[in-house]
Design brief:
- This protein has 118 residues and is of the alpha+beta class.
- It contains three helices and five strands.
- It has a five-stranded antiparallel beta sheet.
Length: 118
């Protein structure tokens, strides 16, 4: 469930099952100029059952865009959401070390080349 208020949080603009159901009402209020003159915006609270899950500001810029203020998932509060799966830890990548005989051969070739130009 979603509750929508004005930015000050003093006037309730309605309760809806989800934000998509609230869009026509918000568009009508936006066109009437009741949501703000420069940037129309509202405050939205999302609930799962009776538990507050998220509070965000929704502003209109060619379409409705969310700006998250508080989330129960990010703050670690208890809520009825699915736990996030953690990625398995990666093992360090082993790099092939050059064999000491290869290093000696390259070094010997370089020394011989520099001696030739002296």
């Amino acid at each position: 469930m979603v509750e929508i208020y004005n930015l000050a949080g003093t006037q309730s603009l309605g309760r809806f099952n989800h934000f998509k159901a609230a869009r026509p009402t918000l568009d009508d209020l936006r066109k009437a100029g009741k949501l703000g003159k420069e940037i129309p915006a509202v405050r939205m609270s999302s609930f799962v059952g009776k538990t507050l899950v998220r509070v965000c500001v929704v502003a209109y810029c060619d379409k409705w865009r969310f700006t998250e203020e508080w989330s129960a998932v990010r703050t670690g509060s208890t809520c009825k959401t699915k736990p996030v799966k953690q990625a398995p830890s990666r093992k360090p990548v082993r790099r092939r070390k050059k064999c000491s005989s290869e290093i000696v051969a390259v070094f010997a070739d370089a020394q011989a080349m520099f001696r030739h130009f002296k």
